[in-house]
Structures are given as C-alpha cells and as structure tokens.
What does this fold into?
Amino acid sequence: MIEFLFLAVIAILAIAASAVLGPKLGVAAPLVLVAVGVAASFLPVFADTHIDPEWILQGVLPPLLYSSAVSMPAMNFRRDFGAIGGLSVLLVVASALLLGVFFMLVIPDLGFAWGVALGAIISPTDAVATSIIKKTPVSKRVVTILDGESLLNDATALVLLRTAIVATAAGFAFWGALGTFVYSVVVAVVVGVAVGRVDLAIRRRVTDPTVNTVLSFTVPFVASVPAELLGGSGLVAAVVAGLITGISAPRVLSPETRLSDTQNWRAVELVLEGAVFLTMGVQIKEIVTHVQDDHAGVAATLLIALGALALTLVIRAAYVAPLLGLLERWSRRNEKLQPILQDWQERLETPEGKDQAFGKVHHFRRRRGSPRDLERFSLRVTRGLADIDYLMREQLGWREGVAVVWAGMRGAVTVAAAQTLPDDAPYRSTLVLIAFAVAILSLLVQGGTIGPLLDRLGTKADDAEAAEQTAAQTAEIMKLLRTSAETVPPVPKFGDQPPSKEAFVAAKRQRLAVLAAQRTALLDARDNGTFDADILSEALADLDATHIATQMHGEFAR
It folds into this structure.
C-alpha cells in the first residue's frame, strides 16, 4: 500500500512538472509524460505492468469527455454539427474498412474481420490528444470541430470493434451493425439527457458549492454505467449529460457553485489526462517483450504501424477536402440568404412587418398565427443571422483544412481499446503494439509538429482585425448590460440621513436583481449566438465575480 501511494505521489508530481516544463521546452506535455512513462517502464517496480483497459474506458474517459462537453460552446457545436457528425461516423467507418484491407494484406492470415477490428481501434481521434491543438494558433471553428469529433467518434469506433470481433466467428452483417450503432447512440442520448436534467434539478437545491461539486463528479458515471448496461455507449451518454449541464448550469446553478466546478474539474482533467499518457508509456516495454516472445518482429511491426498512420492521414485528407468544398458551397448560400434575413429583421420592427410574418405562418402551417409563432419566427431570424455571421467570419480554407487533417491525433481511446482484444485474437501482441505505436507516433509526429506547421501556414487570424472585432462586440455587450440593468427598479435615495440596515439590505437585493437581469440577457444572447463564445464567457465570468463579491461583502455601489 505504501509503495502504491508513493508511486501515485510521484506520478502526480510528474504530471504537474510536465504541465509546467513542457511549454517552456516547446514540447507538448503529453509527449513529455509518454517519455517519462517509457523511462519508468525499465524500473523493476514496473516489471510486467498491465493496466486493465476498463479502467481507461469506464473510469477515466467518461469524466474527461463529460468535462470537455460541459465547457464546449454549445451554439458553435450546433452550427458545425453536420461536419462533426460526418467526421465522427462516416470517416471512422471508412477508415476502419480501408485499414482493415491494409492490415489483411500486410499481416498474413489475419483476415478482414480482424483487420477491421484493428482499424476501428486506430480510427478515432482522441479528445485528450487533440487538447494539444488548443495551445496552437488555429481558428476557434477548427477547435470546435476537432473537439466535437473527438467527443463523438468513440461510439462509432467501439461499436465497429465489437461488431468486427463478433464477425470473426459469425460473419459480418451490415444491417445488424447499423442497427447496433443506432441503438447504442439512441440509448446513450436518452440516458444522457435524463441524467443531465435530473442532475441539475438536484444540484440547484444544494446550496453548499463544495457538496455541489462533489455531486458533479458522479454525473459522468451515473450517465455512462446505465447506458452501458442497456447496451448503449457510455461515452456518448457522458458527453450528452455534459452538454445538457453546460447549456443549463448558468441559469440554474449559483455562481459560487459554477466557479467551484470549474476550478476543481480543471485539476481533475490535468491529473486524468496525465495518467493516461503516463500509463501509455509505462506499458510499452511489456508490449514489446510480448511481440519479441511471439517472434513477430518489432521492426516489422513498427513499420506496419507507420504505414497505418500514413494511411489514416491520407484517408482523412481525402475526406476533409470534399467536406471543405461542401462547407464553401454552404457559405455561398448563406451569403445570399443574409440580406433576406436582414430585411425580415427590419420588417419585424414595424407593425406591417409583423402582419407579414403572421401571413407567412398562416401560409406554411395553414392556420392563424399566434404571438408565440411570431416570437419563434423572430428568434429564427435572429439566430439565422448570427449563424451566418459566425460561419462567414470563421470560414474554413485550405489552411484550416490542413489543420483539421494534421490535428487528428490518436491517444487514450486507441490504447485502451487495443487491450480489449480477446486473448485468442491472432497475433494479439502484434496488433496491440501496432495500436500503441500508432498512438505514440501520432502524438510524436503530429503533436510535435502541429504548432510550427500552423505558424508556417499562417492560420492565426489577423491580430488587428481580431482586436477590432473584440472591441466592437465588447461595446455591444456593455450596451446590452446597461439596457438590462435599467429594467430593474432602483432603490430610493438615502438622502442626508445615514442609511439604515434595511436600506443596505434593499440596495444589496437590488444589485443582485440587476446582476440576475444582466445574466439572463447574456444567456439569451448566448442561445441566439449573437456574440463570440469566448467574449461572452468572459462577460459571464465578470458577472459571476461581481455576484460573489456582492454576496460575500455586501457591495451595493451602482
């Protein structure tokens, strides 16, 4: 026990040190941890180390994916859901099948089904690995697409893996695999939505921020475990629960609770991410030893892994290129639609325009329009214009396409899924080493060069233009805050007499009411996509800080 605690402390210190030293050395922290793990694997204490893959799949990935989903800008995720869905499903399936053919050809007597199983293991990008790109100069839209893809593609890969393993004995059935995938996702979505809503309903009644945060640590497991027991994807369930929480928490949870959540989950993310890469490095020596014992040839295995990584990048590039073309066509369509929506937005400010909107509702729904219908129509116009503005401002060119291709790294999911291969799988040790090698080569080659590559491509937005847009949006947000504050009645003036205790209390309540009105206005703007997600997040954080200060110190100055 003492030995385990000592190793755990050393691991945490190594994780903290890599987070500090990695950026200073110009090396991504995950790569530093993999190197530390490989070095540690030669110590006697780590001889014959074996990490149960279920600890990664069921114990580490759900909270990591949940935390990433909570912090993801939901509006940006919705805007690019088509691209994210294609990368998460179609690209994973295509990659697994083509890699299956490759492995069948280069590994004698492996067979197509086992080749597809290994292809499914290698196909998904990893949320932990793609965290590297957030520290590089790349557009926010690229980050959203990569984040969304890595959150959702695990379900596709794991369902394909299970189907391929079954097919080794019973044969592959396309419709059966499709039905299994759809069922897995539907169950996960239902469970995730239910858990997310119940979680918020419970936590809104808990006033202690520390207790509230402790409850939040259980949410990814409360979502993933039932989903898995019902035959669904536990990882997708955790992601959906995180999205529900991220969207609704600012409206139902106190600022103190959300601040506690943010600080504590960041620490959890750091430790869990670091543990994944450390354990990856620690297991390398054992896997290599098994391959040598099987006389499979380590050099040949690494060469196959290098070819597999190159093939994944080629397949990804072949998919992303036409995807960019479709997005470009969609952008031109939006450009034509923009003046039409702007015209409708101006019309809705006049009685005549509202009457025309009622006529539209009557024409399409074949019934008389109601005030609620008019409100929905106006909201759709507002959101449509915000979406078009975002997509035109964050257009994806060939440089961003290169970033999407090169940033698709493999990591924890590949390593964990490889170890779930059954013991009777042909060439099992070789297949596991290929998966490990692909993950490490991906982190080393792609992760180690993504920053300089993006700098050379010039994918970073113009600083002057970005500063101008930020200043303009900040001014609009300040105007919105002033307008929403004016909706709250002011407290009476104190006059020449010293303010009483009741007057202080009334002023404090009025200040909190102003902050509540301002928060509601900002959240409505967030749901409409009116402002940049990062700028709006900073404004909400400032409101939360003011709210906490007012609660704690009784500040009431206006």
